[in-house]
Write a structure and sequence with these properties.
Number of helices: 6
Distance between the termini: 58 Å
Helix content: 25-40%
Strand content: 25-35%
Number of strands: 10
Shape: elongated
Strand order of the largest sheet: 1-2-3-4
Amino acid sequence: MSIGFFLAILVSFSKLAVSSEVVECYDCSHSDKIVSWGMLNLKVGEKKHITLVDIYNKNARSFDVTLSLTPTLPGMPEVPVVTYMLSSVPSGISTMMTDLSNASNSLVAEAEAKSIPKEVISSPWEFVNCSYCRADVSDYLNNSLEGKIKTVEATAISIAQALNLINTSVPNQFQIPLETGGSILVELTVINSPIKLEVKILRILDTNNNEVQQDVTKLNNMNIKAALEAHIEDMNNYLSPLGYGVNMNSLIFSGGFYRGRITIERFDYK
């Protein structure tokens, strides 16, 4: 995406600015934003075309907004009311948001095509009470997706500069497999200063669809299942040092899975 392209967009937008006022709406309620803007910026009887730009959700919507007086009870003064109708988004802004969506989708596609190597995370259960796991996953994704990250942020910054916006962080949620089995659902937010991915781990699943709790105190009495005893052993390798575990002798085989319960005990698994 060239500098010349963005200069062209800036020129295009400057021609549209007189007819549509840009209002930043970063992950906000459209209706609330329109009403508050109208009350603060319109005179009674005035009508304006505004465009709400939402970098967070990568979209823009335009409205014709009017402030008018509306009767209330007999004998009571009229009150100002904001009304609005959906309108067409200026083509220059629409093109900007399409470019941001395309850059963001390209980042997601490349991230989803990867898997977290076993050298980074050796087991989903390693995440339990792990102080380094999120940072290691973050480092891996930042290093392997550097080019795509810079493209997303450069696009967001260019839009912000053209439209006088403040927030340029662009979040995405998607699932990344682990090489050793299982997956993590992450929210990746491209941020500025410095340009990088901010990684938030939302959910961790092991190969048997057990949801792994990062907080060890939430494990007690959690029912689990496993296709192989080896999966239980892997779980216990990480839980036993924390004072938790699944007693191999208490497992029940049902529906093709070993089933048991995590309890607060120390077992000798050797």
